Amino acid sequence: MSLLDFGTAQAAESAQRSTLRAFAAPFASGAGAVVEELDDLDVAYAVLDAYGHSEGEHLGRSDLADACLGVCTPARFESRFEVYVKLGMLVQKRSKAHQQVYALNPTASASLAVMDRISRAGGVQDILLMLDATVEAIKAGTASLEQVASALHRARAQFSVQAQHLTALVETATFAELLTQRRQHQQGALVEHAQSIVKAVVGRFPDLRGSAARLVESVNRYQQAVSLFYDRVSEEGHAKRDFTMLSADQYLTAATRAAKEALAAPFERVLFDRPNPLITAETVVAAVDRAKPRPVRRRPPPPVEDDPASFVDPVDASAQRAAANRRTLMLAMEQHLQGATDVDMTSRVRGAPWPAAVVIVADLLTLRGLPYVVVVSDALIVDPDAAVTVASPIALHRARAGADPTTDVRGLSDVSFVEVVSP
Amino acid sequence: VNLYDRPGPQIVAAVRLLGVAPAPRDATQLAALDGAADAARMRVVTLADGITLIRDPDTDGLWGSPELAGARAKGPATDKLQMTLAACLRLCWDDLNAPMLPGKTVTRAQIVELTSRLRFADRGGALGGFDAHVVGAVRTLTDAGYLSLDDGNVRLGYAMSTWTARDIATLRGAWDRFPNAEDVA
Questions:
Q1: DSSP per residue, A228-273
Q2: CB-CB: which of B81, B118, B168 is closest to A279?
Q3: CA-to-CA dists, residue A203 to A190, A216, A319, angstroms
Q4: Is the Cβ–Cβ distance between B114 and B83 less than 8 Å?
Q5: Chain B: nearest CA to A321, how far in angstroms?
Q6: Chain B contacts of A292, Cβ < 8 Å?
Q7: Residues A219-258: pLDDT tens digits?
Q8: What distance in Å separates the CA atoms of residue A329 and residue A370, rounded to the nearest whole number?
Q9: Whether A81 contacts A90, CB under 8 Å
Q10: Is the ipTM of this complex over 0.85?
């Protein structure tokens, strides 16, 4: 809370206290008859709330004490309770001998409502209410000339008092005090309202024309006092740059309704600094690199499935490759055999240059599922001078008719027959 | 009226408003300028034709406290501003062998053309309304002093002359990647 807010809050509390005192003065027996602490008012509101929640039931003393727990001490409640009972705000109802219950006098709750309204809206609204009631009575034909004359007289006097009060405030009150009074003098179109009342009065009682005209005069004086009041509020608020001088609603209205020139006026003597975007050589280069169009990724064209001629089944292709390999291998074996059933491959292996000898032996040892048998001896022929320095005798036989070349003795399928025999 | 006889905040305000202010003529004026700049946490940069005051992102002490820095959360300027400035730089400084300043004068239309086509190069052309964004970016950059706008003609502004030799070297290094009129033609 700022110092100014604190000042405003203090002024508001003090204003409420003086409103309360002035309100009670006409029917107080002594100067001490009005509560000194505003917290005491909260006890009365708490009692009212308790009856609001009781749904028509009468409440006992302990119920009320419970309801007031949050706002005052038990001792304070006892003292306030005695006052309420004594003055008839709480009326004792006899239900049972051992249990005393109390009802709330409706006048007391009305008095709280009136107090509320006066401290919020000042007395002006009540004057208007009284005058409106008079106009209603005139229209209904129930008001006598004396009653209307008396009402006009009283209203005129009250407007004069309000005008005097405001003039004195403008001259002497602090800014914080002015702000607390601000809400109490926001009656719009007051003069028009008074004129309509006067019209109704004069229409029924032409003799009261003079009295009605004096009422309009006093309303005008009050209105002038209100203008002076707002002039001072705006002047001081402007000097202090205090934005609380207007209510939030008034700022909203100004924002939506006021002319552009009026809204611009407060900034006539304000200089705005140049824009200060954060741009450095690094940020410019980073932005350039970000903004470069990304390289386009090229995907391989999807296979054209509509054309049956271009479609190749991968399984078929694999089988064709296997058949071609098999055929190549068989042609090589037949070339070794030259139409015979057996051939000794040892000399060919030993006579071949080195890589070719390996190819021959590899072919012989991988005769998968082909009708040939390869017999490798475990003898060892060593020839240090030859291209193939170490070799074992190896023979190729055509498989005998009836023998199943794909059956493998070790349970592995698709393996060529390789027999190892002793020399 | 001598600028440097004024109170410090007024000196700062006047220099910011002018962009480039006449340089102090003697030691007294220099002291007044330095005092004003220090109080405003700004940096004095001496240019060929006067002095200017800039906010230094690294030593912007006014906003330096962690709480305020978090509240302000000032990041780099938008890509729109950066790209527009990059296009202006490439157009106005088209010869790397020459110094960056004063540079050439180009038309605003050239900048709009280059920037808008570059930004949306991967979307097949400029989008409606984007030209207006570039024009707005040119105006903001002009207000900030990066560009100088004169009757539709644009050249590099005084704020560019506050960039250091290191900044210029950074630009030279990235020169080939900058938007180029021939690339987008």
A1: HHHHHHHHHHHHHT-GGGS-HHHHHHHHHHS-HHHHHGGGTTPPPP
A2: B81
A3: 20, 16, 120
A4: no
A5: 47
A6: 177
A7: 888 888 888 888 888 888 877 777 777 778 888 888 899 9
A8: 9
A9: yes
A10: no
